[in-house]
Amino acid sequence: MIRCREIEIADLDAIADLLANGFPVRPRDYWIDGLRRLAVRETPGSFPRFGYMLEHDRTPVGALLLIHTARCDGGHISIRCNLSSWYVEPAYRSYAPMMTKVAQRHKDVTYVNISPAQWTWDAIEAQGFRRYCAGLFFSFPAVSRPAKDMRVEVVRQDTRAIDGLSNSDAVLLARHAFYGCLVLVCRAADGRAFPFVLQPMRLGRVSLPSMQMIYCADVADYIACAGTLGRFLIRRGWISVALDANGPVTGLVGIYREPIGRKYFKGPHCPRLADLSDSELVIYGP
């Protein structure tokens, strides 16, 4: 008998084993560490904390990980769901639509897929998903002119308040520092604060001398702060910052590449570029 149900705390070790088998490039610790983060993370409403699983004779044979987040879109609270990782053992793949249908059944939720394998694009689009990001722009911020008297502040996970930012911004930044991201605030000479969350990039298991933009309030803020950020980062061995884009970014020196970084969404709110906060990239890691 095959059934689909929510993943529960007691299932985490078995789910980590299943995913480590399905994604051999990722060690088991990658999955169990991310699942444990989800176990203590606030989940909005009655949405599933971990996602859904297919079960045969009390053994997981498939899993679809989900990350639900409450967000403010246009002044209203909405729910975004990151469809994180999908794997079903070959013998049970005819049952996979059962799991995906249950996971995507809420019409008022915006679903995102930020790491689709190329061979899944047609299937994703057939499910009603639309592309919102076509590629990545690899910028070289140290080439930009630094703003006069701008300084960089590092945000720690125990930070409670940041001058010039709202309480919700400070909470978001501290939370991402806890996840292991590099969290910075560029402070202009007039006191204005520009928040940034960055994360080292990997190609498979190889670390790159690049950071990925996880969060900034607006791409224009990054352009304004690029020179200052670039000098801060290059002293630490990071020469590039990659950000979601649909073409070259005016005001920055860099290289645009497709289809690296293609991303999809389905639902009422199109995600904003340069906002991957609370996504799989920070919960599970690059």
Describe the model.
- α1 packs antiparallel against α2 (28-40).
- This protein has a seven-stranded mixed β-sheet. A seven-stranded mixed β-sheet has the order 8-9-10-11-12-7-13, with helices on both faces.
- The protein has helices at residues 12-22, 28-40, 96-103, 121-126, 167-178, 219-234, 280-283, and strands at 2-6, 51-56, 59-73, 76-88, 109-113, 130-133, 135-139, 151-154, 182-187, 193-203, 206-216, 240-245, 254-257, 263-266.
- The protein is 24% helix and 35% strand.
- The longest helix is centred in the last third of the chain and has 16 residues, at 219-234.
- The chain has seven helices and 14 strands.
- The model has no long low-confidence stretch (mean pLDDT 94).
- With 286 residues, it is of the alpha+beta class.
- It has two domains: 2-133, Gcn5-related N-acetyltransferase (GNAT) (Aminopeptidase); 136-261, Aminopeptidase.
- A hairpin with a 2-residue loop joins β3 (59-73) and β4 (76-88).
